[in-house]
Structures are given as C-alpha cells and as structure tokens.
C-alpha cells in the first residue's frame, strides 16, 4: 500500500470511493425495482393502513376497557379472564358456531363434489350450467337472500306449504331452537358454487387413461372413484376444506338477518361473529369485542395449523 493511502486524506478518499460505489449500486437497484414498488404501493398502503394497522390497534384494545366514548383504560388480561370464566354467552356462541361448521362444511363439499362430477361428464352447455350453479355463491351472502330464506322457512313459508301438500305439518323452522341453526346450514350448502368450480377444475386434471385402465381391469365405478378420483383430488379437497371452514367461522349476515340481530331463539343462531358484533356495537364494549376477535383469530390459526400438520397423512401430491 502506498504512503498516500496511509495518510488521512487518502483514507478519506477511500471512504468517498466506497460511498460512491454503494450509492451507485443503490441507484441501479432502485432504477431496476422502482416500477415494481410503485405498482405495489396501493397494496402496501391498503395492507399497512387497512389490515395490519387496525389489527395491531385491536390487539392493544383487547387489553383495555374501551366504550368509544372515553379513552381506553388498560385492564391487562381482564377481558380474556372474563371470556374464559364468566361469560356464558361466549360458550353458547362457540357451541352454535362449531355446530354450524361441523354440519355445513362437509355437506357443502359433498354436494359440490357430486355436482362437479355430474358436470364433468361432458354435458352440452357446460359453461351455462357452471354459471347457474355458481350464482348462489355470489348471492348467498347478501341481505336480500337472507331475507328470502327467512320467508321460505317461516311458519307459513314455502317449505311448510310444500310439506302440507304431502300431509305433513312443518314447524316454524326459524322460530324453533332445535331447527333454526339447520336453516342456516341449508343456506350454506346452497352456496356450493365456489367449491364446485374448484372441484371441476381438479377433475379435469385427472388423466382419463387411468380410468380406462381401471375399467379394463374390471374396476367398478365406485372403486374407480375410491382408488383414483379421491386420492388425486385430495389437494383440491384440502384447499376447499380449509377455505370453507374459515368462511364458516366468519359467517355473520345470515344469522343476523334471520334472527333479527338477536341470535335467537334462545341463542340457537348466536354465531360467534354475531356475538362479537353485539358486544362491540350493541353494548359498546369495544375492548371486550377486540378480545373476542383475537380469540377467533387464534381458533382459526389453530385449525389451519392442525389441517396442514395432518395433511401429510391423507393429501397426495405428484410425488
């Protein structure tokens, strides 16, 4: 190394040179990636401003007593302790929600798979049938459909009118605590279009020569379904099961409309999200509602993690 490099001035020159190199490298990286960041900017603003930011604020509020009229007052774990030990409506809401999930998701996926298999047989006008069957998924979450469903299952509704034609006197489905939850399950099953489309896409990916080889070996249709269709369709079944279960945990509009926002009769339609809404905007316990929301996040996260951990035993991929 020369004597000039050992002098302070030489050291300064080296630092300036390294800084210029780093600055030039940063400029090249920025010029190369700036368009991508600009396209991502609306999403980043929405994510940090409308998703992550409110989520973190709600996490803070879950440890406070906040009624939206006064400043939040820190109470620590009091909200969570109350949920676990002194809130009977929490356990009632969890029971109703789990009942809804356990019945609605399997029935919806089974019905969607049956319709997808029927459409996969090469029907004429497949696109028309596909659009018609998908339409309930677009309309099912609307207030208008919930109101219509409420009229169908009323004591003098169309369902009881059809039963009376066969000499059967039907109950008031939405007013009886033993039946009201199942009217919501029926509404959920009716919205089978979204998983049906995904099942249909998965069925189209199964090679037909596998069915032909199985037929030559004498395999029945049921055995072909059990040995070929189901194993090759397990990734699609897994995806639909996770998505539909998460949606079932978050269901709100049908229960709100059919019960008039009360969750009745006798809390038989008190979905977890409906109870959360009542606490937040009915009783103005926003801190307590935030704690309820985060418990729901944890429940969904546990279910999703459990689904992925157990999927290695029954989901079959290409390898």
TrEMBL record:
Spans traversing the lipid bilayer: 37-63, 98-119, 131-149, 179-203, 224-243, 255-277, 289-309
Keyword set includes Transport: yes
Main location class: membrane
Subcellular localization, as worded in the UniProt entry: Cell membrane
Keyword NAD listed: no
Keywords assigned: Cell membrane, Membrane, Transmembrane, Transmembrane helix, Transport
Biological process annotations from GO: transmembrane transport
GO CC terms, sorted: plasma membrane
Domain ABC transmembrane type-1: residue ranges: 94-307
CDD domains noted in UniProt: TM_PBP2
Bilayer topology annotation: Multi-pass membrane protein
Coiled-coil spans in chain: none
SUPFAM superfamilies on file: MetI-like
Organism superkingdom: Bacteria
Assigned protein family: Belongs to the binding-protein-dependent transport system permease family.
The protein, known as: Sugar ABC transporter permease
